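FW: tagging you since you asked about this chain on Friday. Here's the raw sequence from the shared folder, copied in full. Didn't touch anything.
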Amino acid sequence: MGVIRAAVEAGKKIDVFADETRPFLQGARLTAWELQQDGIETTLITDSMAGHFMKAGRIGCVVVGADRIAGNGDVANKIGTYSVAVLAKENGVPFYVAAPISTLDLSLASGEEIPIEERSSREVTEVYGVPVAPEGIAVQNPAFDVTPNRYVTAIITERGVARAPFGESLRALAGR
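HL: got it, structure written out here
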């Protein structure tokens, strides 16, 4: 959110497409609300709509957060981030990661070393306690996915911007 707020404060005219993400609906409940409170023009979409708007030329860039960044620039973030990154690459849309330097983990050579949490199946089969799927259906519910660095245009931190080759630029930002 800081990158978006900074762009607005710098006088840039922007509007945001905020992705609603299952199973917690964070884009709808949190991101869209914060943007609206800041007076930033926002349109709420679901993750599965992102490709449509990219192909139509309605999205100029993608900005996501990160929960963990490996030394090579692979990025772990909320589930669905990888799909949006692939769509961005396919449509020629820059894909930026905005995260504090504390998310950088240089001890990890790549995102393949990042453990992915598997969450309760009820988060997928129910919405606010109301069943929405057949009883007994098999469910997979990873909370995060890993976006390979080849999809990342740049990583924006409070210490500066890292670009490929990420191994070098991230170490420089980390002071190593």
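FW: The first strand starts at residue 16 and ends at 20.
HL: agreed, and The chain has six helices and twelve strands.
FW: great, closing this out.
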